[in-house]
Amino acid sequence: MSEHDSTPRTPVVARRGFLAGAAAVAASAAAPALARAATPAAGPAGARPNILLIVTDDQPKHTDWAIPKTVDWLGGQGVTFTHGHSATPLCAPSRSSVFSGRHAHHHGVRNNAASHSLDQSTTVQRYLKEAGYRTGLFGKYLNSWTLADNPPHFEEFALLQPAYNDARWNVNGTVQTIDGYTTNIVRNRTLAFLDKAATDSRPWFAYVTPYASHAPNVPAPKYAETPVPAWNGRPSVPEADRSDKPPFIQDATATLDDAREVRTRQLRSLLSVDDAVQAIRDKLVALGQLENTLVIFTGDNGYTWADHGWLKKSVPYSPSHEVPFYLSWPARGLAAGTTDHRIVANIDIAPTILEAAGIGQPAGQDGHSLLGAADRDHLLVQWWKQGTGGEGPKTWASYVAKDKQYTEYYDLHTDASGAVSGTGQVSFREYYDLVEDPYQLKNLLYQATPAQERALGIPALAARLAADRTG
Length: 471
Known about the structure:
The chain has 12 helices and 18 strands. By secondary structure, it is α/β, with parallel strands linked by helices. The chain has a domain at about 50-375: Alkaline Phosphatase, subunit A (3-Layer(aba) Sandwich), CATH 3.40.720.10. It is globular.
């Protein structure tokens, strides 16, 4: 089988346990744009909205150049969240949080090997399907998921074994090879799913998840040589003195040139995602369903571009856990090109979708619906080391606010099922003033005295972090 795309494009330059917790949530003093919308949550005349959820892979925040049509639609005619995060900057834990509205220490998928630990009865696709939604999945599902196993609660699916070209797929229960560029196949399968809305009156949920911009970041052939804007790094890239950082960062060796190469490939691979999003929007217009479709676009985690010498994800620095985050729903009044400065995360996606669909919120969610005024003053972000190997970061947890970030590293590790073991002893700490030091160059806890730590408010932050991890 073959699903190719030759359309020309003019590039635009320009199972649960050991730890628990939840981010603190408080009512916002000034209601955000989403809360001010007056239209009923169920859309016009009580009609339940369609749900389109687009989740890219390893897409950092500063990649808007590659997705201009997406930004124009979902940003210019929707809501741009300026503080979007992944609560665990790793693929399978993040995607499990998207599905469940829970932190990884609650849903149990603490690493990429533990995908089968997710309780599928807690997922948004289960609730939507049981509520009468037609459900579809197109693209990547969960790392370590067996390709021949059908993803639960999806009526129609094209499940990708991650690759960019001529990949293996499970299409509605049949494992097969489909020739072609996988982002285009995701697009075409999604469009065919949407076409059925012409004869099927049920509202639908489409989970659209291309492999881009994950390594090896292979672009479609037509974008293989597309020029990308020059990039000279940011202050965190050439950081010469990393003596205040944890040992694995002190040993990191990625350079600006390394970052430029990865950035170029990522941007080029995302150009096809932008094409797919535009094609999906055009299809919604043709079907007359754009108005009452809730669209959410985000990445499963960010990615560092040699920041502090690190060219990956899985670290507590901002580029690793910050992600693009857009939402549009014209029937709810969310089509005006507004910005929302609340701290939001992947754990908020399932609650938002369930509220929009008129489905009661299940117990145990850590996130909250973005359609209301709920706000948080900080977010728990965390990551677990799998195995006991000596390389890379240790398990860590972080208190992330707009103006500061406090991180603890622990003597903890997980096995392939996500179970945690270790002493839990804190082995290293970091604190950054994100107002004065947004690139996290100066760890204020390095060689700090107890008096200095008290002046920074560290005891209270440590207590809050402990409560988030055990609450």
